[in-house]
Amino acid sequence: MSRSAVITGIGVVAPGGVGRESFWATLTEGRTATRRITLFDPSGFRSRIAAEVDFDPGAEGLSAQQIRRMDRAAQFAVVGAREAVADSGLDPASHDPERVAVSIGSAVGCTMGLEEEYTVLADDGRRWLVDHTYGVPHLYGYMVPSTLAVEVAWEVAAEGPTALISTGCTSGLDAIGHGAALIRDGSADVVLAGATDAPISPISSACFDAIKATSPNNDDPAHASRPFDADRDGFVLGEGAAVMVLEEATSARRRGARIYAEIAGFASRSNAFHMTGLKPDGREMAEAITVAMRRAEVVPSDIDYINAHGSGTKQNDRHETAAFKRGLGARAYEIPVSSIKSMVGHSLGAIGSLEIAACALALDRQIVPPTANLHNADPECDLDYVPVTARNHEMEVVLSVGSGFGGFQTAVVLRRP
Predict the structure, then answer these.
(1) Each residue of 159-204: pLDDT tens digit?
(2) pLDDT recorded at residue 1
(3) What is the pLDDT of residues 63-115, one digit of tens each?
(4) Is residue 169 flagged as an active site residue?
(5) How far apart are CA 181 and CA 170, in angstroms?
(6) Smallest Cα–Cα separation from 85: which of 246, 263, 239?
């Protein structure tokens, strides 16, 4: 009997509000959550803006010990997992724990915890030889990104396959693809899948400043993230997490679960070209799109909406537009396409899972989120990028794509149940 994976629960921690409904309201209202950085003093940085999450771990139900032990990214993941499980109506304890798996993505792991501890150990950078005795007991956990997946596994008592997927900015998509594969091949019946990142720290900001990838539009942060706009000048760093409950479809239907979407197709490719550069023809992303559609048994005319990577850099937006035309042909001009990064920023590895959450909610509610701040379209980006305002739209099949440093290109096809 063939097995397929469906999404039955969604948990979100995102700029603009913690929780699935706050996230959806931010998107459909076209609100931007970008502002001057408050998590550290950004004075002296080229880009001093970001999309931060207003997050109080205690108010979200984490204990004092969990808060002390977990990096901010881990806290996001656990809170997202709790909401996803509650939304699904699933009791993980009702399943054999060895049949419950975890697949969590992250691009930069416990960056904030590591940087904070290095600052202490190095006495604000004054010591070349750091004094390890000042380190917190859980410092080793910050250095091992897999602890992010382990925290989620502990939360739901999962004893099945547990993995941390780190493929740059496609980590969130790839973690969900891996989770769906675990269900399809019979390795698990339930998977907590998604991604988390909390990269708004001096080291991350300095890295993106150095290559001038982030927007320097510090005087107008609300309009700094402008994917596909002719006046765009870089992406806006973000943070957050989205975790989903994936279940084997037959089992989910048997228990009467609400099904948001089926994960119908997945494919990833690499351009083997450059650490940060992209070929202008979009061939590798187009290939991922083609293979994902083939696995979903759909054709370009079936695609009703595309959730774009849409980072807001000229290189990415033009590469992606070329990929859509190459992979979908003339149909590309007829499909609404949008980028939620215009509202919640680019949370690196986490953004792919947030985009899958947005796609699942779009299918469920038949609304396409807009591309905020798109007022002056780049002539080279000549598709329907849903400027400014959300749109009611009938959808059965949607496509979500991602592009990551290192040449990663991923496509996921979701189908309405």
Answers:
(1) 999 999 999 999 999 999 999 999 999 999 999 999 999 999 999 9
(2) 62
(3) 999 999 999 999 999 999 999 999 999 987 788 999 999 999 999 999 999 88
(4) yes
(5) 16
(6) 246
Beta bridge partners of 261: 7
Task: Spell out the alpha helix ranges (H) of 15-146.
Answer: 20-28, 64-69, 72-88, 111-121, 139-143
Beta partners for residue 404, in sequence order: 408
SS3 118: helix
Q: Judging by DSSP bridges, how do beta strands 261-270 and 5-14 pair with one another? A: antiparallel
- 264-415 domain in CATH 3.30.1360.140? no
Give the DSSP letter of residue 161: -
Strand partners, 412: 266, 400
Alpha carbon 131 to its chain centroid, in Å, reads 36
Residue range 5-254, CATH number: 3.40.47.10
Whether 207 is catalytic is: no
**Given this chain, do its domains 5-254 and 264-415 carry the same CATH topology?**
yes
Q: Where are the domains of the chain?
A: 5-254, 264-415
Q: Has 138 been annotated as catalytic? A: no
Low-confidence ranges of the chain (pLDDT < 70): 1
Distance CA 365, CA 20 (A): 13
pLDDT given for residue 2 in this prediction: 85
Q: With 0-12 CB in 10 A as exposed, 13-18 as middle and 19+ as buried, what is 63? A: exposed
**Residue 387: what are its φ and ψ, rounded to 5°?**
-70, 130
- Give residue 92's pLDDT: 78
Residue 363 pLDDT: 98
Active-site residue, selected from the candidate residues 309, 319, 359, 381: 309
Rg (CA), the chain: 20
Measured in degrees and rounded to the nearest 5, phi and psi for residue 340 equal -75, -10
Q: Is 122 strand, coil or helix?
A: coil
Within 8 A by CB and 6+ apart from 149, the residues are: 102, 103, 104, 162, 163, 164
Q: Are 407 and 267 in contact (CB under 8 A)?
A: no
Rounded CA-CA distance 29/181 in Å is 34
Catalytic residue among 169, 178, 359, 381: 169
DSSP 8-class letter at 370? P
C-alpha dihedral sign at 172, 174, 176, 179: negative
What is the identity of the amino acid at 335?
Answer: I
Q: Alpha helices of 225-367 — where are they, by DSSP H?
A: 249-254, 283-296, 314-328, 341-344, 351-365
Q: Taking all residues of the chain, what is their mean pLDDT, rounded to a whole number?
A: 95
Residue 238: Cβ within 10 Å count: 28
Catalytic residue among 110, 346, 359, 381: 346
